[in-house]
C-alpha cells in the first residue's frame, strides 16, 4: 500500500482492488490518522465558520496585508462583473452591487470555506431574468429570500454532502447551456439593436425578434463591444496580472464619453447608480406571492447550492484545504436573505472570483470581507462614474464570461466517453437552452441515475457451482494451499450460488429468475454472500419469497458469509429460520447441507 501526503500533512492510503470484470472496480479512500489527532466531527466543528478557525490559528498585520491586497484585486474584478450580471438578468446594475456587498460579506464572514467569494453569478442570469419577467423585481427579491431559507434548512439538515451526487455530465451540460443563453441575451447590446418588441426570454422566441431588428444595428456599439473583447483578451495574454475586465470597461467608458458615441450607457438606460446602500426592508409577503414564486426559489436554492459547493471544491483543490459544506450552505442561505433585504439579487459562490482571490495571495475569509467593503466604498464615493459605462462594453464582458463558462474539452470528452454520458450531457444541454434550467437538472439527474442503476445491475453476477470434479488450481497459488473438500464437488444434491456485487432492486429480478429455477434434484441451496456489500429491501423481499417457496418444496436454504449489515437487513425482512439457515462460510454451509441430506433434518 502506497502512502501519500497532501498539502494538509494528512497521510492518505489508497486501496484499489479489482473484484472482476462483472463487478467492476472498488476504489476506496481511507485516511490514516492517529486517534488523538482525528478531526472532531461534532456539530460544533461542522458548523464553525472558517473565519473563527483562521483567527484561532493567529492573525496579524502580515495576514491582514495579504488579505487586503487580495480583497482589492477581487473587488476590481467583481465591480464591472456584478453590474453586467445584474443588467443581463433584467434588473438595474445597483442590485448586482448590493448582492456582492451584502452577500459577499456574509458568505466570507460565516462561511465554511477559507477563500469563497460570494456574489451574483452568471449561472443565475437565466433564472433571475425569467423570475423578473414572471413576477417583477419584488417577486425576484421574495424568491431570493425564500431561497435563503431553503438553503438554511439544507445546511441545518446536513444535506451539503448530497450535492456531490449531481452527475458530472449534468453540470457540464447545464453550464454550457447557460453560456449559450447568456450570449443570446447579449446580442441586443452587442449590436446596439433597437427592438420593435420586448425581448422574450425563450431562445426560440428571442431569435425572430433579434432577426427582424438587425437593420437597426449601431456601428459604434459594435465597435465598443469588439474593442472591449479585444482589450480583455489582449490583457489576459500579455498582462495577465492586470485587472483586464476593469481596464477594458473603463477604457470603453472613457472613449464613449470623450468621443460622444451614440451608444446606450448605464446612465442613459438606468439613470446611474444610487450613491448609498439602501435601508433593509422585506419584500411584499403574502401566501399568494409565496406560492407563486416558490418554484423559482427552489430553483435558486438548488443552483445556488451546486454552484457554491462546486466553487468551494475548486478552492480546496487549489489550496489543499477542506471546506465545511453544511456550514457553507448556512452562510449562503443567510447571505441570500441579507441580499434580499437590501434589494440585491441572488448570491452564490463565484468560481472565477474565488480563484482570483486565491491567486492574489489571500490568507483567509477576511479577504472576501474586505472585497465587499471595497465595493461599498465605490458605491459611496464613485458611483456617479458608473453612468458613463456603455452597455455594449458590459455585453462584451459577458460574452467573454459565456465563452469561458463552456468546458469545451469536457464537453467533447463526454460525447466520446459513452452513449449514456453523451445522452445525459445532450439532454441537459438542450433542455437548458430550449426549456428550463430546473427541468434540465431534474431530467438530467434522473437520466443519469437510471443509467447508473442499469450499469450497477449489470455489475451484479451470480454463478452456480455444481462441479463434478475438483477445480483445476495452479501450482503454488493461494487457492492451491486452501483446504479442499472433494465431497463438496461431487454432491449433486447441494448447489452453491455465489452472488457478487451490490444486491439491489436493479438486479433483484435477474438474480431471482436464476434462483427460481432450482432443479428438483437439489435438496439444498447455498447462497454465498461473501462478496455482497449491500442489499436493499427489494432484493431482501425477493429472497424472502424464494426461501418460502423452497421451504414448501422441502429445499433447505443456507446463506453463507453474509456481513453483519447484510444479515441484519435480511432478518428485518423475515429471511430467518425456519426458512433459511445462516453459516459463517460456504464450506460450513455445504457441510451442514450434506449432513442434512444424508441424515435428515
TrEMBL record:
Membrane topology: Multi-pass membrane protein
Record field: transmembrane: 68-89, 96-117, 137-159, 166-187, 209-233, 245-273, 293-315, 373-403, 423-453
Annotated compartments: Membrane
Keyword tags: Membrane, Transmembrane, Transmembrane helix
Matching SUPFAM superfamilies: SpoIIaa-like
Domain of life: Bacteria
Listed GO CC annotations: membrane
Domain STAS: 484-593
Leader sequence segment: none
GO biological process: transmembrane transport
Keyword Endoplasmic reticulum: no
PANTHER family xref list: SULFATE TRANSPORTER (PTHR11814)
Protein's UniProt name: Sulfate permease, SulP family
Annotated organism of origin: Rhodospira trueperi
Amino acid at each position: 500500500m502506497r502512502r501519500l501526503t497532501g498539502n494538509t500533512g494528512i497521510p492518505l492510503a489508497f486501496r484499489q482492488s479489482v473484484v472482476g470484470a462483472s463487478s467492476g472496480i472498488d476504489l476506496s479512500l481511507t485516511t490514516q490518522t492517529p486517534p488523538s489527532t482525528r478531526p472532531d466531527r461534532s456539530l460544533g466543528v461542522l458548523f464553525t465558520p472558517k473565519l473563527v478557525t483562521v483567527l484561532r490559528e493567529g492573525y496579524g498585520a502580515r495576514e491582514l496585508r495579504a488579505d487586503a491586497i487580495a480583497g482589492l484585486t477581487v473587488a476590481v474584478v467583481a465591480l464591472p462583473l456584478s453590474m453586467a450580471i445584474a443588467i443581463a438578468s433584467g434588473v438595474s446594475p445597483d442590485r448586482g452591487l448590493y448582492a456582492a456587498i451584502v452577500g459577499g460579506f456574509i458568505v466570507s464572514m460565516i462561511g465554511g470555506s477559507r477563500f469563497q467569494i460570494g456574489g451574483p453569478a452568471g449561472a443565475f442570469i437565466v433564472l433571475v431574468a425569467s423570475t423578473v419577467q414572471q413576477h417583477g423585481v419584488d417577486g425576484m427579491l421574495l424568491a431570493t429570500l425564500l431561497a435563503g431559507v431553503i438553503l438554511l434548512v439544507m445546511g441545518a439538515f446536513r444535506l451539503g454532502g448530497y450535492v456531490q451526487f449531481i452527475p458530472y455530465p449534468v453540470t457540464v451540460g447545464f453550464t454550457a447551456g447557460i453560456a449559450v443563453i447568456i450570449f443570446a441575451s447579449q446580442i441586443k447590446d452587442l449590436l446596439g439593436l433597437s427592438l420593435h418588441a420586448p425581448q422574450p426570454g425563450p431562445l426560440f422566441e428571442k431569435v425572430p425578434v433579434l432577426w427582424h431588428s438587425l437593420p437597426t444595428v449601431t456601428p459604434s456599439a459594435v465597435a465598443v463591444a469588439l474593442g472591449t473583447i479585444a482589450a480583455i483578451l489582449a490583457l489576459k495574454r500579455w498582462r495577465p496580472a492586470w485587472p483586464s475586465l476593469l481596464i477594458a470597461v473603463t477604457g470603453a467608458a472613457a472613449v464613449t464619453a470623450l468621443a460622444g458615441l451614440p451608444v446606450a450607457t448605464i446612465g442613459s438606460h438606468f439613470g446611474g447608480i444610487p450613491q448609498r446602500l439602501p435601508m433593509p426592508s422585506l419584500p411584499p409577503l403574502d401566501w399568494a406571492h409565496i406560492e407563486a414564486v416558490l418554484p423559482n426559489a427552489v430553483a435558486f436554492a438548488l443552483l445556488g447550492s451546486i454552484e457554491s459547493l462546486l466553487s468551494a471544491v475548486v478552492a480546496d483543490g487549489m489550496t489543499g484545504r477542506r471546506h465545511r459544506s453544511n456550514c457553507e450552505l448556512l452562510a449562503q442561505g443567510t447571505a441570500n436573505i441579507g441580499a434580499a433585504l437590501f434589494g440585491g439579487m441572488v448570491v452564490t459562490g463565484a468560481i472565477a472570483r474565488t480563484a482570483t482571490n486565491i491567486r492574489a495571495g489571500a490568507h483567509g475569509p477576511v479577504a472576501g470581507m474586505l472585497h465587499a467593503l471595497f465595493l461599498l466604498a465605490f458605491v459611496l464615493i464613485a458611483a456617479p462614474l458608473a453612468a458613463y459605462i456603455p452597455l455594449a462594453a458590459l455585453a462584451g464582458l459577458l460574452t467573454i464570461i459565456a465563452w469561458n463558462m463552456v468546458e469545451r474539452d469536457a464537453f467533447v470528452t463526454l460525447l466520446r466517453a459513452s452513449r449514456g454520458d453523451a445522452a445525459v450531457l445532450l439532454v441537459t444541454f438542450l433542455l437548458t437552452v430550449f426549456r428550463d434550467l430546473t427541468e434540465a437538472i431534474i431530467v438530467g439527474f434522473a437520466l443519469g441515475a437510471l443509467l447508473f442503476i442499469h450499469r450497477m445491475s449489470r455489475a451484479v453476477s451470480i454463478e452456480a457451482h455444481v462441479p463434478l470434479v475438483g477445480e483445476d488450481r495452479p501450482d503454488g497459488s493461494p487457492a492451491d494451499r486452501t483446504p479442499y473438500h472433494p465431497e463438496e464437488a461431487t454432491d449433486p444434491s447441494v448447489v452453491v450460488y455465489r452472488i457478487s456485487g451490490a444486491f439491489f432492486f436493479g438486479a433483484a429480478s435477474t438474480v431471482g429468475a436464476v434462483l427460481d429455477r432450482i432443479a428438483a434434484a437439489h435438496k439444498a441451496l447455498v447462497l454465498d454472500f461473501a462478496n455482497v456489500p449491500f442489499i436493499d429491501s427489494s432484493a431482501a423481499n425477493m429472497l424472502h419469497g424464494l426461501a418460502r417457496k423452497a421451504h414448501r418444496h422441502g429445499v433447505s436454504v443456507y446463506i453463507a458469509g453474509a456481513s453483519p449489515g447484510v444479515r441484519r437487513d435480511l432478518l428485518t425482512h423475515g429471511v430467518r429460520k425456519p426458512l433459511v439457515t445462516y453459516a459463517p462460510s460456504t464450506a460450513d454451509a455445504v457441510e451442514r447441507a450434506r449432513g442434512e441430506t444424508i441424515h435428515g433434518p
